[in-house]
Specification:
seven-stranded parallel beta sheet; 7 strands; 8 helices; alpha/beta
Length: 250
């Protein structure tokens, strides 16, 4: 009970990114055996070596059903079927709406929404077949409920993912599968460090009531709450972690 994940198997998609690496370490630290899904498994080889025998890497292209099925088969053969999914894979295309071409739109929708749907559906089916319930955590964003210029496709995809989370929660509750969304605000990573050192980046930080960026460590408690039995009566929830940014009208 509580926050322990001992005996559980967790799949993390997008495991090569900053969020995915952190999520994998946290789930492993709580006792789970962790399956790291990445388009190129070599990009998470060092993390697998760090975590040891309770971790494995699988090639996973979230937009392709055959790749998802193969990854789940590999996971089941070694650890058993996942009882936890952290649906984390995602991309963004940044450009003004008037210049946001259909190729960018389709690419973001394919990964952020279609990919999340396909992985969640495949894992949920395996959970139903196993008859042991489970927890699905869809990694959304505060941009699923508010907007900033330049990320039309990303915001639309994350809004869709939040609504998909609620739909799944209603339909899967009878199978003892909980589905929630984690909605981070602006989190400092190696990818965005340069922007937040600029004048525009610093101005954005000043609009966050806590006057700081989040860190991946700020996502630790919320992730464990949603993944573990500590959140046993939570489903269909959107857990926002943004320092108050989404409630600030300034």
């Amino acid at each position: 009970m509580g926050f322990s994940l001992a005996g559980r198997v967790a799949l993390v998609t997008g495991a090569s990114g900053a969020f995915g690496r952190h999520f994998a370490r946290i789930l492993h630290g709580a006792g789970a055996r962790v399956v790291l899904g990445a388009r190129r498994p070599d990009t998470v080889a060092a993390l697998v070596a760090e975590l040891g025998e309770a971790a494995m890497a699988v090639a996973l292209e979230v937009t392709e059903e055959a790749s998802i099925a193969a990854a789940l088969d590999q996971a089941a053969a070694r650890f058993g079927p996942p009882g936890i999914l952290v649906n984390n894979a995602g991309i963004a295309a940044t450009r003004p709406f008037l210049d946001h071409d259909v190729a960018d739109w389709d690419r973001v929708m394919q990964v952020d929404l279609r990919g999340a749907f396909l992985v969640a559906q495949a894992v949920a089916r395996s959970m139903v077949a196993a008859g042991q319930g489970g927890s699905i955590v869809n990694v959304a964003s505060i941009l699923g409920s508010r907007v900033i210029p330049g990320v039309a496709g990303y915001s639309a995809a994350k809004a869709g993912l939040i609504q998909l989370t609620r739909q799944m929660a209603v339909e899967l509750a009878r199978h003892r599968i909980r589905v929630n969304a984690l909605a981070p605000g602006y989190i400092a990573t190696e990818i965005n460090a340069g922007f937040f050192e600029t004048e525009a980046g610093q101005a954005l930080v000043k609009r966050i009531p806590q006057r700081r960026l989040g860190t991946v460590e700020d996502l630790t408690g919320p992730l464990l709450l949603l993944a573990s039995e500590a959140g046993a009566h939570m489903t269909g929830s959107v857990l926002t972690v943004d320092g108050g940014h989404s409630i600030n009208s300034l």
